[in-house]
Amino acid sequence: MTKKSKSQNRFVVHEHHAKHLHWDLRLEMEGVLKSWAVPRGVPEKAGIRRLAILVEDHSVEYINFKGTIPPGCYGTGEVKIWDKGKYKLIEKISKEIRFKLFGKRLKGKYILRKFKDKNWLLFKIK
Length: 126
Fold this sequence. Notes:
Number of strands: 9
Number of domains: 1
Shape: globular
Largest sheet: 8 strands, antiparallel, barrel
Number of helices: 0
């Protein structure tokens, strides 16, 4: 299934100091925040590939969350907003999502490509 869109939606990248430091890329899509944990951070330069692990969807209200998730809860630890802004969905097919970010830190075209189970590759192309 191919889906192309010219609309802009919101995105956020949370810096998450949980058991292990990682970044959560969240794209507003289909009424939720589709989310990927990115252990080494979202690449800011073209040519860098990063593992992105698909995690559970979050509600869109979570886009502005920052604070501490208490012990015993899913995602325990401190959460900061590392970047946020709008994104344009360029194309979404079964194993690939192409999009352009318009954030304060992250700008440009990115690809999320599924390669195994919940594992995706995230890379910047421009």
